[in-house]
Amino acid sequence: MTVQRSKLVIGNWKMQGSFAANSALLSSLVGKTQGVNVAIAPPSVYLAEARQQLTGSSIQLAAQNVAAEGQKGAYTGETSAAMLADVGVTYGIIGHSERRQYYGETDSVVAQKYLRLQEQGIKPVICVGESLAEREAGQVEEVVSRQLMAIIDVCGVETLANAVIAYEPVWAIGTGKTATPQDAQAVHRFLRQLIAADNKNIAEKICILYGGSVKADNAASLFTMPDIDGALVGGASLVANDFLAICHAAKASIVG
Ligand code: PEP
Fold first, then answer.
1. Mutate to test the pocket of ligand 1, among 91, 99, 168 (most ligand atoms within 8 A of CB)
2. What is the pLDDT of residues 79-95, one digit of tens each?
3. Cα→Cα distances 183→17, 141, 168, 216, Å
4. Is 96 a catalytic residue?
5. Is there a catalytic annotation at residue 134?
6. This prediction's pTM
């Protein structure tokens, strides 16, 4: 029997926003995303304010990053998973290619961040994806399996029951280039099979998002793919109508 997974759309605002801009964006979204799971990931300084504005709304909060080291202590500049839980965060993005590339985050640091989030009941959104050079060298499966297995090996496959995966080919992030729905589907299927080798039940249920220049005009075709369960959206999540169009495409793709 095929499992019907619900769709999820997460907007990653990255290092963008202000009180005024966030407030305008959120008031355009609230009340317009029914029928699909939606979360937004503002910069951490704005999480608490966004929480206030989202009170009573079904839109959930996601964090863009979390401290690997622990839940409190002498780690200047860091934000712990306990603090994220305290402000009402539901999802935590980890392993984003920008963090791997600009901040030197290794697979083992990503696994520590995963553990810290799960200790606080926050669902990690594990980003995996290959660079253009790796794709051209035929290493897509090798790269994404290394990134995912680094977590499974340390934390155990069962913990994926409370996690989300985002396949984000690095060459598609912020570039306007999107993987074709078929190419993305092939990697999503591969990731699901990789998990199924350890635990079939979790593989069938886990939500695997696609990320990389998802826009209003390509979302619907990506969402028709059987193993694509939604999107992690960067640029288009900053424009209310574009983000809403992606959320509506996700809702429209839900069968039955
Ligand atoms: C991202 O940063 O996770 C992302 C997918 O960005 P964009 O949609 O802008 O490519």
1. 168
2. 999 999 999 999 999 99
3. 33, 12, 12, 19
4. yes
5. no
6. 0.97
